[in-house]
């Protein structure tokens, strides 16, 4: 007999299945076996995409709009190319919750009609396919935020940021997977199952915006829209070889994003982009903040996006955090960080060591604030749906406070948070540092089910510092990345993390800047 939660979950699984265009799927026999871990090149070589479609999916937003603006390609053919690629990658990595084929093609047709009639693009994102994390509200579509109990939740309007992107001409073509309770560095839930890393399907793509990491990293999307409360944009971007931006809080619109429990403001969740170029990150923010969203979402900071000239390398000082004091970097990640530092120095940038200030305590405060009610809200919602608790969800509950905090306790931690923010600002000024360079994670992407260390990204959420991950183009090298000799763990945490350091496991290695 099927469990009641399974019956509910099947509603969303059917939505996903029904959203697939069968003509764009490959027969099972033509898919690589599970033993083929790296599938990054498969969409290019499987024969499903034409050479022109493959070339289209490798273009940036600027490249696409430039060609559409001179009539060299249409929005319809652009959207079809990305949808086809998305279908193939979904079969291999399980990243989507719903393909918006009908809606995307209808919108693309309207954009083409506008261009034919006027010779002009609708806006700066005309025809640009953008993928969206599931818990952004879509009018008339199920938005469950990875909770079975919310499968009957259907928003009456689109999230504000989606309306802004559509007005600029963007085409929203696929919704993507996320973890149970949205508080995990991986992407796994009982509704859709686990999403896997396209560079190595035994590894995680990160979380909680893991579906977005896959979509952007495999060029199934030009820009991805995720959320970040502890690293949830930056970790998937880092693990999938993309750029991922965490703005400061109250910058990008958040209205209409379904993140439960709502109202937690001690560490705010933010909406942020993932992309394959820094220029597309800049374009995204220019469009979103150029729309003046604070006129509708009045809590936002009324500050336009500034397109500033890059500073002279001679005027820039970068502080490097080589390790956070709790867990040292694994050999591949240390090599990546050293490579970036060397490139900066060769370019004439002043690079100095930056000693981290009480990061372990900062992260402990963050963990308490994430679950100030001891996770009771999330546990009640899970119980309402009757769904099983995923292992990494339980891990998050285990590090939370075990008894709900009092209001006074919460206030005291908020005050402590503000003290750390002021201290870090002062330290950067005193040390003459303009930018901090650090890792997003101690090593390359973790094996599935083993992502337990959030600290390298979460610290910046509590400090409310803007942060961006960027790809180095480096990968694990068995000849270069040797285990440390005479390594003695300083703590149980470091011992646990270094037990995962498998040099033979191929993946992307890049630091978090």
From TrEMBL:
GO molecular function terms attached to this record: hydrolase activity
Keyword Hydrolase found: yes
Domain Amidase: 77-485
Catalytic residues identified in the record: 133, 208, 232
Pfam families with a match to the protein in the record: Amidase
Keywords for this protein: Hydrolase
Keyword flag Heme: no
InterPro entries: Amidase_dom, AS_sf
Binding site for substrate: 182, 208, 229-232
Family: Belongs to the amidase family.
Name under which the protein is recorded: Amidase domain-containing protein
Organism, scientific name: Fonsecaea nubica
